[in-house]
């Protein structure tokens, strides 16, 4: 692939689901390149949430190439998600006005519980709807949506998996892979992170580091979004013929209790 970097640059795929990310290497220089990434990247870079954006180039064919600082570091391990820096970084993201302004300018509209339930309703196929764990979870979403109450919209990442958190050799943390960014209830990110990684008896302490008390109302919202996200994950994996992962997320629904 031609990125017009000049001679002697070695370009290699960086992996990932889209196939649009690459590493470029020349002598001791290394860059992370992405094709047609969102203009949102520039604001994320300015806020220090992703590795520094170095340049943006429009190619003759209309593609836009971005080059970011190559990060020497590693992904977070699951048990490191309890680190208070994760809580503080997520709080910074959720409270960022520049991020919210940019997503709004890009035409994003708030993605609330009604939109999420509509996506679940329109996505789940009949075979999955007949699975008891899926059926019970779907009924829970419909029943509890009327009790969800919040007034704050924020930029949410939507997939706070530990693989998307990086720590550099300088001990700085980043949250990457913003393709699914949305304007939503912050409880969406919080719910996924706490349900996936933090033991329930530590939720209060983790949320203190984030800057919020653990209330029954917040707990309900976090649970609701996590159940909805799980149902969407089940169907997504089925569509990709990833049946082992599909079964994992179906069984994960047993983690919830619907009183």
Automatic annotation (TrEMBL):
It holds the Pfam family APH. It comes from the Bacteria. Residues 14-212 form the Aminoglycoside phosphotransferase domain. SUPFAM superfamilies: Protein kinase-like (PK-like). PANTHER family: CELL CYCLE REGULATOR CCRZ (PTHR40086:SF1), PHOSPHOTRANSFERASE YTMP-RELATED (PTHR40086). This is Phosphotransferase family protein. It comes from Lederbergia citrisecunda. The lineage of its organism: Bacteria, Bacillati, Bacillota, Bacilli, Bacillales.
């Amino acid at each position: 692939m031609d990125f017009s970097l000049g001679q002697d640059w070695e370009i290699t795929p960086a992996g990932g689901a889209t196939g649009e990310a690459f590493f470029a290497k020349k002598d001791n220089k290394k860059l992370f390149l992405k094709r047609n990434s969102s203009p949102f990247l520039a604001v994320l870079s300015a806020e220090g949430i992703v590795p520094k954006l170095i340049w943006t180039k429009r190619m003759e064919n209309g593609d836009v190439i971005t080059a970011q600082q190559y990060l020497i570091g590693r992904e977070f391990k699951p048990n490191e998600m309890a680190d208070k820096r994760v809580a503080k970084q997520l709080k910074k993201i959720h409270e960022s006005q520049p991020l919210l302004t940019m997503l709004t300018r890009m035409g994003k509209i708030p993605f609330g519980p009604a939109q999420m339930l509509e996506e679940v309703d329109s996505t789940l196929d009949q075979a999955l709807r007949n699975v008891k764990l899926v059926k019970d979870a779907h009924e829970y979403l419909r029943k509890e949506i009327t009790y969800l109450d919040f007034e704050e919209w924020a930029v949410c990442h939507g997939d706070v998996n530990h693989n998307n958190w990086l720590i550099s050799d300088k001990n700085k943390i980043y949250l990457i892979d913003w393709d699914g960014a949305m304007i939503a209830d912050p409880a969406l990110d919080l719910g996924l992170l706490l349900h996936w990684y933090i033991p329930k008896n530590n939720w209060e302490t983790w949320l203190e580091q984030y800057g919020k008390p653990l209330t029954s109302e917040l707990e309900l919202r976090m649970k609701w979004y996590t159940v909805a996200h799980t149902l969407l994950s089940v169907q997504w994996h089925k569509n990709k013929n990833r049946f082992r992962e599909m079964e994992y997320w179906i069984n994960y629904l047993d983690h919830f209790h619907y009183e």
